[in-house]
Amino acid sequence: MQRNWKPNVTVAAVIERDGRFLLVEEETAEGLRFNQPAGHLEEGESLLAASVRETLEETAHHFMPDCLVGVYQWPRPQGDLTYLRFAFGGRVAGEESGRTLDAGIVRAVWLTPEEMQACADRHRSPLVMQCVDDWLAGRRHALDLIRHYDAA
């Protein structure tokens, strides 16, 4: 069977505050799962802009990325999709309380790494903990590593 393969490009925000990380609890086909604020890159959008947008849509927090934590390639075990994730680290600068979150997002929650480990069976993917582990290991890459060119 011949098919046109391409990875699904996603972004994620790794945000630590007082030893806790901002996650979302979301509805998935596999049940309620935890993930970083994350989502798909939209046409014409820069990777940075996508991480800011997704964080606001999923958590009502304004994300200010200041580094690239890592780039991750993950083929789902079901074999139907491969994700190429760009994880950005940064901080939040305010919250829009009362903002309606994206469909499927149950809540935004701050968890310690230990609390995250305790619910690892409910992570959306192994990338959730890997991104936090990389952050805790000090992995920070300058944002100018990423270049965005408009089509114009």
From TrEMBL:
GO terms, molecular function: nucleoside diphosphate phosphatase activity; ribonucleoside triphosphate phosphatase activity; thiamine diphosphate phosphatase activity
Broadest EC class assigned to this enzyme: hydrolase
Record's signal peptide: none
PROSITE patterns, sorted: NUDIX
Keywords tagged on the record: Hydrolase, Magnesium
Sections of the chain in a coiled coil: none
Enzyme Commission code: 3.6.1.-
Family the entry assigns: Belongs to the Nudix hydrolase family. NudJ subfamily.
PANTHER family in UniProt: NUDIX HYDROLASE 23, PHOSPHATASE NUDJ
Protein name, UniProt field: Phosphatase NudJ
Taxonomic source organism: Pseudothauera nasutitermitis
